[in-house]
Each structure stands twice: as structure tokens, then as C-alpha cells.
Amino acid sequence: MPSGYRPSDFLEYPPDFGYTPEPQWRGDTVDQARLASARLQHLIALAIRRAHRDATPKIVAYRLARLGTVDYVRRKLNGQIPITMIDLAELWQAFPAETKEAIQSWLED
């Protein structure tokens, strides 16, 4: 996949990204590092949405001090673009319990 890959493309049904607790991951990928990264991003989005049922991209963006980039946050929560290490650090600061839960789940997977 090119560097601008979409994490949600690793799912059989991409709209499940960040919403479905047990999505069907595609088994035909050879890029295990990006698959692992996509799974972590999915778990973080899922944990935030579960803990904050009202966690619209605008609310998440506000908590991340990114009110001007609501669409950017929405695209990350939906797996349309990958998160960066800076995003991960910002998520940890804004949503520490949810991010920790997602990372622990990812490590156990």
C-alpha cells in the first residue's frame, strides 16, 4: 500500500472502523505493521466512542485542542487516515483512560 493508506481498508466492511467491537479484519494483507497500527487506531476510536456516547468529532476535536479541524478528527476516528505518534500522544493527554484501555487491549491481541 502507498504511504497514504487508509486504516479502514484493512476491514472487510470499512464503515465498521471505530464502531464495531469485533470487526472482520481482512486476512490477505502482507503489511502486518500497518495492520497492527490500524487495529490500535480502531481500538482507540472505539474506546472513545464507548466512553463518550456523545463523542462527536467536534467534541473530540475540542478535547484535542483542534476545534478548527473537526473533519480531520472525524477522518481519523473513521480510519480514513492514519494517526501519527503526535496524535497518539494528544489522545493520551485528552483521553488517558480510553487510550490506555485501547493500548492494553491491543497488546493482549
Principal-axes geometry comes out as: globular
Low-confidence stretches: none
Helix content: 40-55%
* Portion in beta strands: under 5%
Average pLDDT confidence is 88
Q: In angstroms, what separates the terminal alpha carbons?
A: 23 Å
Q: What structural category characterises the helix and strand content?
A: mainly alpha
- SSE pattern: HHHHH
Q: What characterizes the major β-sheet?
A: none
Radius of gyration: 13 Å
Please give the number of β-strands. Answer: 0
Number of helices: 5
Total count of domains: 1
Which keywords apply here?
mainly alpha; 109 residues; 5 helices; globular
Structure, explained:
53% of the residues lie in helices and 0% in strands. It is mainly alpha-helical and 109 residues long. The model has no long low-confidence stretch (mean pLDDT 88). The longest helix is centred in the middle third of the chain and has 20 residues, at 32-51. The protein is globular, with a radius of gyration of 13 Å. It has helices spanning 32-51, 57-63, 70-77, 85-94, 96-108. The protein has one domain. It contains 5 helices and no strands.
List the helices and strands and how they pair.
Blueprint: H1 32-51, H2 57-63, H3 70-77, H4 85-94, H5 96-108
